[in-house]
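Hi R.,

Here's the chain you asked about this morning:
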Amino acid sequence: PVYVFAGDEETLVQECHHRLKTAFIKRFGDQNPDFNQSKYYGDRDSAEKIVESCQTLPLSSEMKMTTVHRAEKLSDSGQEYISEYCAAPNPSTCLTLLWLARPNETFMRKSLPSVAAKNGVLVKCWKPYEDRRPAWIESKMKEKGKTITRDAAALLSQEGGDSLSELSTELDKLVLFIGERNEAAVQDVKETMSFSRESSPWDFAEHLDKGQFRKAGAILEHCLSQGEEPIRMLNLLANACKRNADSVNGLPEGKEADLFREIKKADLLLKSGHGTESAVFERLLLLCSSGRRGR
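And the predicted structure, written out as tokens:
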């Protein structure tokens, strides 16, 4: 049998592997783990060494498990060599490939995933949509014997990081923070999130350059709440827009002109004190994000 867990969200890939390994041990036992549970790495171990392990019989057990981490790092010739094995795998070895790459059409055109899928199981670990992240957070808290309010889960989903790995780190910190309490609330999340201590105006500019406007908005809000000058933040936003305008991924010409007009207007509003900071920046970030998506 052959299993392939593929996806660009490492946390999900590792969760799948953990569940398979738990089921494997429950059924076949944990005898001689140094021999029956081999671990290899695609960027470090040769395909020949991996296949040799697969072809070796288990010791005092019906099955053995051979796991290949970072399988996407295998060379083309190495992938081809393991593909040949997957066409007729050893029935007493469970070969598990952990593939950290988006499981799209390009991925499926590779020989190793396609052959492995025909003779085993291919699990595609897609990154969850934004609206599903809070539910994932709630389920993880439940696994830890805790609960979290919906508002707190929504806040953590929005501000706790782009990847599930980052969210997992924030969850661990949150569980430690609430201690013996059973439920985490919004204030608990605010007190434990990394960005509340580490973010700076330069982080704001960096996320703007990357087109990560949701994260940039969260950092902006934090910077303003900590007393950062709104005009300085506006200048950083304007400079980021100028840099993006010169790149191939910049705003369309019409959108670019609209944005710079709004920046000038925002400058006057902030200096005169007639504009609400949050409303001014919210409109500018909305223009930035809508223009980028329009490309």
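DSSP finds 16 helices and seven strands in the chain.

Let me know if you need anything else.
M.
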